[in-house]
Specification:
Blueprint (H helix, E strand, L loop, with lengths): L4 E9 L1 E6 L8 E8 L7 E7 L5 E7 L4 E7 L5 E4 L13 E7 L2 E8 L2 E9 L9 H5 L2 E7 L9 E11 L1 E7 L1 E2 L6 E2 L2 E9 L8 E7 L6 E11 L2 E3 L2 E8 L2 E7 L11 E6 L6 E9 L13 E10 L2 E11 L2 E9 L8 E6 L6 E9 L2 E8 L11 E4 L5 E5 L11 E5 L2 E7 L17 E6 L11 E5 L3
Parallel strand pairs: 1-35, 14-20, 18-23
Antiparallel strand pairs: 1-34, 2-12, 3-8, 3-12, 4-5, 4-11, 5-6, 6-7, 8-9, 9-10, 13-16, 15-16, 16-17, 17-18, 18-19, 20-21, 21-22, 22-23, 24-25, 25-26, 26-27, 28-29, 29-30, 30-31, 32-33, 33-34
Length: about 450
């Protein structure tokens, strides 16, 4: 089918402040960082946000106690204090302190030896609707130094605020034309990736990156947010498609996930979605879940390609959270994005997702990722299906942790797989959801050489 793959490159793009601003936030994804000139401080540092109606969202670090925490003052004037008894104290004085707002979560972090660690976090769901555009319009970054004694000098050498970036990435997908070929500009290709926040799925959002296919250098270019029911959310696990002069974004509604439902929606725009921040309106895609066996409680991981005039949509269907399998649908009428008919479903799976339509061996195939929760013999592999969702083979490739996406790219006879793993970041407060590294695999050249094997890059900037 294809030659064997090997891992040739890893990158962990950790960035708290992606684009600097102190106000004018368009989505509930923001951060404030304080750089410290001296680590042995005695007073109290505060980093956070103030908003309308007396709202205050503050992360703090007390140098005298070497303790970090979070304070919340809501529109009623009630202030609450939150800290982690287990994770709130760094082992050594920090180099920097930060506060992040990611969806419904407010988090305080410290940076020690170049690594950010979450020290405390609070869910704001019952206190303030952070996704409310009115709240966002009134949000401003706020910084304070509260000395212990009158003669104490502020340890802050600089600070910055802006749009939150990411602690890790996942759901790596190519931005494509309607026919499935990669979108290319000035020799660069483009990716969408889920930007992980310090917590579960509702702390993440969608980012857009450029990729140099020769050097594998990536650069963060944009962020895409979705407006649903009057709220701005960080929906993710998407596929971005250019169809003539319009863009189509197929989306999974993870931004407000409450373990009861996830759906596939579609947003369209004539703006250039490859750069800058965009808030898009999405409409549900009425998928043919009624012809799938049993109950379907959710759908996600959409991938759209127009084949012979008809849109085809690969997606994941869940029997329950989390028991899921890949399926494929076809629009009945050419050019339309409705009237979906089921072509097939791999219902023997229980932990398979990330279906992607790709031309292989002269025909259309659906690639997917078999997670460890599948039945024996169907675990930790990249199966390949035909358009009836009958397995016809599998990619020969190392399988990173989590359920990595099998995003394939071919250049000059060499195939590249762009994916991710489950490596966490940010410590125990963050928990599950911060994964992972961007992982790149390649087939060997015809002479068997692989001059990039084992390369790894880390750091705050890609």
């Amino acid at each position: 089918m294809l030659p064997p793959f090997e891992i040739v490159h890893r990158l962990r793009p950790v960035t708290l402040v992606a684009w600097e601003r102190t106000s004018g936030f368009v989505a509930p994804y923001a951060a404030v960082e304080l750089e410290l000139g001296t680590h042995d401080l005695a007073g109290r540092l505060v980093a956070g946000f103030r908003g309308p109606d007396g709202l205050r969202l503050e992360g703090w670090y007390d140098g005298g106690r070497r303790l970090a925490g979070v304070d919340v003052t809501d529109a009623t004037g009630r202030t609450t204090h939150h800290r982690s008894r287990r994770h709130g104290r760094p082992d050594t004085p920090p180099e920097a302190v930060a506060a992040t707002l990611t969806g419904r979560q407010l988090t305080v972090l410290t940076r020690n030896d170049g690594t950010w660690t979450a020290r405390g976090r609070v869910d704001l769901t019952d206190r303030v609707v952070t996704a409310d555009p009115r709240v966002l319009a009134g949000l401003e970054a706020d910084v304070a130094w509260l000395p212990r004694s009158p003669g104490d000098r502020s340890p802050v050498t600089s600070w910055r605020a802006g749009t939150f970036g990411q602690l890790g990435v996942r759901d790596v997908g190519l931005v494509t034309e309607a026919d499935g070929t990669p979108v290319e500009r000035d020799g660069l290709l483009f990716l969408t990736m889920t930007h992980a926040g310090p917590g579960f799925f509702d702390t993440a959002h969608t980012g857009v990156w450029s990729l140099d296919p020769r050097t594998l250098a990536v650069e963060h270019r944009g962020a895409l947010y979705l407006r649903r029911d009057g709220r701005v959310l960080g929906d993710h696990a998407v596929h971005l498609v250019r169809d003539g002069d319009r863009w189509m974004l197929a989306i999974s509604t993870w931004g407000d996930f409450d373990r009861t439902s996830v759906a596939v929606t579609l947003a369209t725009s004539t703006d250039d979605l490859l750069a800058g921040e965009h808030v898009l309106d999405a409409v549900p895609l009425d998928l043919p879940t009624d012809v799938l066996p049993g109950r379907v409680v959710g759908t996600w991981d959409p991938h759209l390609v127009r084949v012979e005039g008809h849109w085809h949509l690969a997606f994941v269907a869940a029997r329950k959270f989390f028991d899921f399998y890949p399926a494929l649908a076809r629009a009945a009428e050419p050019g339309r994005l409705d009237g979906w008919e089921r072509l097939g479903a791999a219902t023997d799976r229980r932990s398979t997702e990330a279906p992607q339509l790709r031309r292989l061996d002269g025909g259309w195939r659906v690639l997917a990722s078999d997670g460890a929760g599948n039945p024996r013999g169907l675990r930790r592999r990249f199966p390949v299906f035909d358009l009836t969702m009958t397995e016809v083979g599998a990619l020969e490739a190392p399988y990173p942790t989590n359920i990595p996406w099998p995003t394939l790219l071919e250049r000059d006879g060499v195939w590249t797989m762009l994916t991710f793993d489950g490596t966490p970041y940010g410590g125990g407060v963050s928990g599950y959801g911060t994964h992972g590294d961007l992982v790149v695999l390649r087939t060997k050249r015809a002479d068997g050489a692989s001059d990039m094997a084992g390369h790894r890059q880390t750091g705050d900037r890609p």
